[in-house]
Amino acid sequence: MEMEEQWWRGQLAADIHQSLRIKELKLPVYKALSPQIALRRYFADLLAILSNRYQLCPTARHLAVYLLDLFMDHYDVAVKQLYVIALSCLLLASKFEEKEDRVPKLDQLNSLGFMSSLHLVLNRQDLLQMELLLLETFSWNLCLPTAAHFIDYYLSVSVHENDLHNGWPLASIAKTKAFLEKYTHYFLEVSLQDHSFLTFRPSMVAAACITASRICLHISPSLTSQLHLLTGYTWEHLTPCIELMLIAHDNDVKEANKTKGHQSSPQLLFQPQYQHSTSQLVQFHPPTQPQTPVQPQAQTQTQAHTQTQAYRSHLQGRRPTILSGSSSRGYTIQACPGLQSSLQPTVRALPVQGPIAR
């Protein structure tokens, strides 16, 4: 990103941040009503991989997933049609967030492996109609803040010279910032994969990403006074979101250790082979249509609360050692799991049934 585009470094950073905080208060309420919600993780990962393939910025990637979430929350859509909708969300988000030459071209999308396997061919007229439907659904407003819009501003105060690592002064602030940034972007991607994070404000998710990263790196205090002053969030505000992130992190660590057969290290797990490969795109198969009933927002929140309650005692047990900087269990980072292990070949697709009854 060009220096002039890095708003968080400019004189208007505080004003822009305040504007984003106001806009997030007006975001549509996500109700988790989609009958295809079991496929949500699949399409979120698909959009993330396509964003990496076309080198789109994180804000475009997160906006694309958020647009898809909002649309799925309003419409009951056939699985095959969800591919067209997902690609349309990606195009809208990239047109809004990226320079023109970064926006994926129609022939690039049609050349994707899963498009041919699904016998899908996009044309300009169909894409235009879908984009218009999406824009009408969003009331022609694409200025929708996501956690990615806040993360760089919060990263600017993520490390302080008085921080401690395992109770000792930081050996290198630059290296600490580099590792913390990698962890933060890992947790940012974790937040894309689970719709439970949509129950939190985007700024809260961004602040939780940084705090969870400091916990994993044993940097104390876990929540810095600078981040608290910048966001207004306390530990009590962030704890539910952080706990969900650490649950996902622990699961990834377990998978990494199973794969390697030994305790993993951050350096190892940051290697390219642990990242999503764009070559996977030609191997995608349509997912199985979910048979589970739709979970309303209240039930989703209850399940998230149950998860965090189960994890809370474990977190509470290690939090004092983290805050004091003393040694605790080792933490590593694992890239988001690949898609293939969680997907099954398609058996059928539901017809489009129109808007979901409210």
TrEMBL record:
Tell me where in this chain the Cyclin-like domain is found. 45-136, 168-247
Domain Cyclin C-terminal: where?
145-288
Q: Which regions are flagged for Low complexity bias? A: 283-309
- The segment annotated Disordered runs over 283-328
**Transmembrane residues, as ranges?**
none
* Keyword line: Cyclin
Give the top-rank taxon of the lineage listed in the UniProt record for this protein.
Answer: Eukaryota
Q: Name one Pfam family in it.
A: Cyclin_N
The family annotation for this protein states: Belongs to the cyclin family. Cyclin J subfamily.
Which protein is depicted?
Answer: Cyclin-J-like protein
Species, as recorded? Callorhinchus milii
